[in-house]
Amino acid sequence: MSAGWFRRRFLPGGLLPAPGTPRPRASPVPYRRPRFLRGSGSGPGTADASRRPDARPVRSPARGRSLPWNAGYAEIINAEKSEFNEDQAACGKLCIRRCEFGAEEDQEWVTLCPEEFLMGHYWALFDGHGGPAAAILAANTLHSCLRRQLEAVVEGMVATQPPMHLSGRCICPSDPQFVEEKGIRAEDLVIGALESAFQECDEVIGRELEASGQVGGCTALVAVSLQGKLYVANAGDSRAILVRRDEVRPLSSEFTPETERQRIQQLAFVYPELLAGEFTRLEFPRRLKGDDLGQKVLFRDHHMTGWSYKCVEKSDLKYPLIHGQGRQARLLGTLAVSRGLGDHQLRVLDTDIQLKPFLLSVPQVTVLDVDQLELQEEDVVVMATDGLWDVLSNEQVARLVRSFLPGNREDPHRFSELAQMLIHSTQGKDDSLTGERQVSYDDVSVFVIPLHSQGQGSSGH
Amino acid sequence: MSAGWFRRRFLPGGLLPAPGTPRPRASPVPYRRPRFLRGSGSGPGTADASRRPDARPVRSPARGRSLPWNAGYAEIINAEKSEFNEDQAACGKLCIRRCEFGAEEDQEWVTLCPEEFLMGHYWALFDGHGGPAAAILAANTLHSCLRRQLEAVVEGMVATQPPMHLSGRCICPSDPQFVEEKGIRAEDLVIGALESAFQECDEVIGRELEASGQVGGCTALVAVSLQGKLYVANAGDSRAILVRRDEVRPLSSEFTPETERQRIQQLAFVYPELLAGEFTRLEFPRRLKGDDLGQKVLFRDHHMTGWSYKCVEKSDLKYPLIHGQGRQARLLGTLAVSRGLGDHQLRVLDTDIQLKPFLLSVPQVTVLDVDQLELQEEDVVVMATDGLWDVLSNEQVARLVRSFLPGNREDPHRFSELAQMLIHSTQGKDDSLTGERQVSYDDVSVFVIPLHSQGQGSSGH
């Protein structure tokens, strides 16, 4: 966990529109020292791995703390790959003001009393690469972008059905029918707002990094609880899952050079100049060499999900656009993810070949209709960066959740303890629970979000 | 059913590689007059709707017959939208020779005795538009393309794991490991062959239509039973489903301007010249008009799955790239499908704007592991053109299948009867079975494929 992380404020209401706006009643902000931090000096803004008596040279559960917010519990661990933690997080209440529409020129924001806010909850994990700069910017910025995007469409969100025109004036009598036939629902506006917010945040990061001479990028996984639904937006290789007594449901999918192979190859097919003659667009089981020339080898191009054979030509010996498999797959030999924020300056080492054209900042959004679930008190969403999922499967995480929560019903901090325990189990501890010793050498961040508090009433408006 | 349809031969073994090659024993080729054809003159090559006493002016079940083949049963009906049926079909045994590899220059085909063929089954439905020419060409060509593509990789298909090099010579000692790590299986070669065959067939159709001064395109839905698996390749809006006693499983998904909106909008974003300034790439709930100028209206662009609002500009008033919803959605105001074969010459009426750049000939392929199913005698795959699915849901078709087959166990022609009955029920007959009167005004083609005969042994090699 970086200094930047501690410096950011995670007060409930921290995502409110502007100073001076009436805020909803703030929840208490308890600080609890995480159990695995045995050092004595860890307080907000002061945590430092060097003080920790149990620091280890390669990886250590340095600087972890529970996030002081009552609707989600996070643990973050720095694997000390970099001086500052490349994992960053943010969470808070999301208060969306309603815009009163009049004539275009005299539209003004009307501050309503707190009860009339559209109120939601926001959790976000950012896994940085090339330094923590982009992740820190994203953690400080994305929620504001999202609030702005939501406020721009909130009028449509609170209507039974989004109106064709935002002012509500029907120009054509069958406008509502057109909207209905297209099946456009309020949740589509939230999805659209999330998509736009990620793109806006990406632009902000590009400008800010350039202005400050910094570099880097990050993945982004966001959960938003709003109007009885949980929206999970993902750009990168973090993951969110729903864990219930009898169900484990993925709420996101990963975007890596491997999972987005066809999109990336297609782009290189359309714009071959992006490869500057240095890479081959085709996929082979391994990098080809001189001996392969003239042989028929397995290959895949952008239009293929299956495999075929081709006769190897000289141009096939170039370095592959996507190389390696699984966790080792790299885009242009450089990057392990294909969506995220930042990376505007990222180039292949010692070349002018840019990665940004191949990266998407737009997330995939899934919607969980929380109000339709018959919620149990121990239904949770687990969000985590790839450091967790590299060593624990969805099912293993679900087993840990189910083995921990029922025995700790009286503990008011049990969701926070669970997040800690999940991180513990990536550090080669608690292997009695997972059955084998699994160790993550990456930064790890985990949110555990109890769904019971997210149902109707708590997140409606 | 067109004259072209009757002229084509559907003899078992009709898809064999070449005359003179030893053929597997042919199954008998019974001709059965379909029950709903009350006319007397319908024999192969002679069916003519004008002779039918029950012909109706708008649509009529003209010229239908059961496909004379024992591993799948088809019914085709001409809605008389056009003089010739735009629906075409093909089926037969697929015999794949093995290529013996020596030095590149002296490779030669070795004719093996029939038992050493890799033997499969092939069924295909083609739904033409702009005339039957493309569909007829596809029905006459695609199986040859597929056989050629399969023969080019058959050595890899029959190996435990496809070799990195088709000659089988490992150049790098860890070649098998690379193939294994990529998870490349024999079935990926069949998928690749299907993808390549569709593209090859598309090129053949383009050349043939141009040479003969004809036009048109068609969708293509193909099922191939091979080595204990059923491959379903789909490019267009036909559909295949698996119906079992307690399961209905879609084996394909439809490709229309609506389902492929993002791909199509993305292409127009990359190549705006494809729209020649005449169309807008953006999607709106309805076509915009002058009154909408300056208003904020619902819209979607290529990167969005959700919706947002934008201020209407003049360029937004152009005709939308994709317009209408559901069955009415049209690409460039012209075409209701976004994948298929042909259409090389198709242009927007009175313009030079081509549709072909937006169309994909490559199919989506799904694989059903038939050997892993505990097959019941009444498990079938139903393949049909959109004429059927426009009026019957998957579940309605499954109900019809389940209500028909068990009561007709002794009837050797029951699968053929079932295909007829399914077509009947799109003609407003048998509404006692579907519960309501549903009528299709489109051509309708149906294959019913009993899976029991497709398991191991019958389709292995």
TrEMBL record, chains A, B:
Residues 100-451 form the PPM-type phosphatase domain. Residues 16-63 are annotated as: Disordered. One of its GO terms (cellular component) is mitochondrion. It comes from the Eukaryota. One of its GO terms (molecular function) is [pyruvate dehydrogenase (acetyl-transferring)]-phosphatase activity. PANTHER family: PROTEIN PHOSPHATASE 1M, PROTEIN PHOSPHATASE 2C. This is PPM-type phosphatase domain-containing protein. It comes from Diceros bicornis minor (South-central black rhinoceros).
